[in-house]
Amino acid sequence: MSEETEGRRFFDSVKAICEDPRFSQSVFLVHHGIPFDIAFGTDAYFRTALYIKMCEIEGSKFDFDTMEFQKPEA
Question: What pLDDT tens digit does each residue of the chain (74 aa) get?
Fold first, then answer.
């Protein structure tokens, strides 16, 4: 395999990780003081609940009917 192909495969893998919402939630939690082992080691339910609650503390509002964050009013 060529060096260029290996490099492409490497960055394709990195891109897949970066675009994974589980990874994004975990990084957000660590950034906001949750220990790494909890942010990356907990199950999806607890991690998502932590993420939603921390976003709400920062002023966002999560709508459980639509399962989306509401857009801020202008």
Answer: 788 888 889 999 999 999 999 999 999 999 999 999 999 999 999 999 999 999 999 999 999 999 999 987 76
Asked whether residue 19 is domain-assigned, the answer is: yes
Number of domains in the chain: 1
Q: What is the pTM of this model?
A: 0.77
> Quick one: angle between helices 21-31 and 3-18, nearest 10?
70
SS3 content of the chain, % helix, strand, coil (to 5): 65, 5, 30
Domain range for 13 is 3-69
